[in-house]
Input
Amino acid sequence: MQALVLVGGKGTRLQPLTTDTPKPILTLVDRPFLAYMIEWLASHGVDEVVFACGFLPDQLQEVLGDGSGGGPRLRYLVEPEPLGTAGAIKFAAPYLEERFFALNGDVLTDLDLTALWRSHEKRKARLSLGLYPVDDPSNYGLVDVDADGAVRDFHEKPDPGHSGPGLISAGAYVIEREVLDMIPEQRNVSIEREVFPRLLGKGLCGLRLDGYWKDIGTPERYMEASWDIIEGRVETAVSGDEGGVFVSPAAEVAAGAQIGPRAVIGDGCLVAAGARVSDSVLLDGCRIGENAVVTDSIFSPGVTV
Ligand code: GDD
Ligand code: MG
Output
């Protein structure tokens, strides 16, 4: 089984964390963000992941490798210029199978992709959307689906007229290869704005999926995602402790320093005696001096206080 992951965005809302490190490989707790996505895809039978890249693809490849160390095989495609969410899929066409998963590469989730694949097959859909309930759909794609799972309407970034809770597109799709014929070549095409509307009533289906789902694209959500991982609200291999604390085995915390509630202390960090760190993430190699107090902060690698 194959998955195409869209990772062409710039991650501007996470700057300066994403100035030197692209968002897909920004460390989340103890590993690059995309490692969670690869682990999730593998748990649903994916054995090949194709990354549709834009920003700094070399770094991505360097950090994630080709998968030969275990897990799915990893390939990287680089668009000559950003082609949009559908254009990037079209660009990957030579590498894609008859039916494949496509994913937005900026969400932390454990939604049941196997259920989405099965429902896609059962309904003989052409494109199936994983749906997730949210209170405020305004930053997402709002989906209206009938009792049989046929999508009746799709509104990308709906205006306030659509306010109130609703089902949004979780950015996880099962796609039939024939859908690629609808995407014009060599120009920027949005799957949300140009492809979904044309597929209404023509095999566009949706299935509500339960579980954990969060777009990690802002500092607030990046922090929430960290505590959710450590405190066990997302299904992953990473674990922390009850107080929401994760200290890397390669960090040094002096006796008498106070860590938590809620803290990530990355590789090579030094926290001196009497220091207090709470509600904060220290990326690799930060140094917190004696009696310093750090709270409600995310530190880029190498910050000294
Ligand atoms: N390769 C490539 N090329 N990837 C791209 C491009 C491009 O030109 N443009 C965007 N992407 C990637 C982004 O990196 C991201 O992983 C994904 O496509 C979606 O783009 P975003 O810019 O993050 O879109 P959004 O978050 O505003 O909305 C999308 O995601 C929502 C769920 O988080 C839409 O798909 C919504 O419908 C959806 O609800
Ligand atoms: Mg996004």
Q: What stands out?
A: The chain has a mean pLDDT of 94. The first strand starts at residue 2 and ends at 7.
